[in-house]
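Known limitations

Structure tokens in this collection are predictions and should be treated as such. Users comparing against experimental data should check residue numbering before alignment. To illustrate the layout, the record for Phosphomannomutase/phosphoglucomutase is reproduced below. The input appears on top and the generated tokens appear beneath it.
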Amino acid sequence: MPDLSGIVKAYDIRGVVGEQLDEALVRDFGAAFALLVKTEAPTVVIGHDMRDSSPGLSAAFAEGVTSQGLDVVSIGLCSTDELYFASGSLNLPGAMFTASHNPAKYNGIKMCRSGAAPVGQDTGLTEIRDTVEQGVPVFEGSRGSVTERDVLGEYAGYLRSLVDLSGSRPLKVVVDAGNGMGGHTVPTVFAGLPVEVVPMYFELDGTFPNHEANPLDPRNIVDLQAKVRETGADAGLAFDGDADRCFVVDERGEPVSPSAITALVAVRELVKEPGGTIIHNLITSTGVPEIVAEHGGKPVRTRVGHSFIKAEMARTGAIFGGEHSAHYYFRDFWRADTGMLAALHVLAALGEQDGPLSALTQDFSRYAASGEINSTVDDQVARMLAVKDAYAGKSGAQIDELDGLTVRLPGGAWFNLRPSNTEPLLRLNVEAADRTAVQALTDDVLALVRG
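Generated tokens:
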């Protein structure tokens, strides 16, 4: 039996094309996915990004689905949140071919059940892996059919229906699509809005010739920052490769933290539903639950990862959720993540008042943060234990292990240390009152982590 543990991740399937992932294997994944969902729907919706390997892999997946008697609706080139829109609006299970921000040699599959409900290790992905490893059973009935459908216009119209920019002052916004799917979706979503778009790297190119399509890395937003300053734009937006995440820079070209965006959008959503529940993962700023509570909302803290966020949103009826990684989840969007909708909220908030974005977001940025710092270690468990033991003896330190190790210190400073699921890494995030305090705490923890 093949061992697929190296490519079946916690939330998706991802690997190097031609080495770990090929059309024959993907065909089996399609058949296994069909077996998983065939009792809930007779059809699967499939989309793909701009990588060279994506059309062939998505077609192979469709062959696997139809081999089990289910039909396929192919929506072709799309962003991941556009695929979620199709799954939600059509109430069909779906599969998206993308490796998000990973380099060109990678590809992968993000899957969901009807209504964009997540498929992760505990919600079907393990079952799919087991089916492929053990051999997909042959279906004796007739094959399904494949039809094509373009949902880009419907997707754009739906997003615009959720955020009213009709009263906005005119805005100039630089958008860096990173040669990813934002170059496909932004022109249609922004059509007719009072927004002048200055496009950067809108040409779809899965080799990412200008920079990696990963705005979480500061090196990849340098061009955007420079263009915002050069053009005198009101804001800048950067999308990742599959355009489900959106990063924001202000009129000075300075990054706005995803925690500040989470708080800003949360406040806007709470105006629509006073007293609503807002989800935030445990690495978002302490300012997020503070601001949510101050505006009458109910903040709920969760583990990192979309399957946990979506499950908690379903359990609590939450109206919105945000993560430190710039994933933003909306109940009005089938609890799925869409950076495009978050971007429209930011532009609407900016356009409703006369001040610059830096002044608007200052109210939502209360603390200093380190960003995520990765350390390669030989023994994750031993290094985590060393850090825990060191801080357990400190007066007033509060320790919890909801997701990795979180330590809160007197005065409000805190850090979270989490092991990577796929690499020999420990990921550190630190927050404190100011940059000096952040650096001091970061240095202390890294000394323990790196020995």
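For this record: The chain has a mean pLDDT of 96. The first helix runs from residue 23 to 37. Please report discrepancies through the issue tracker.
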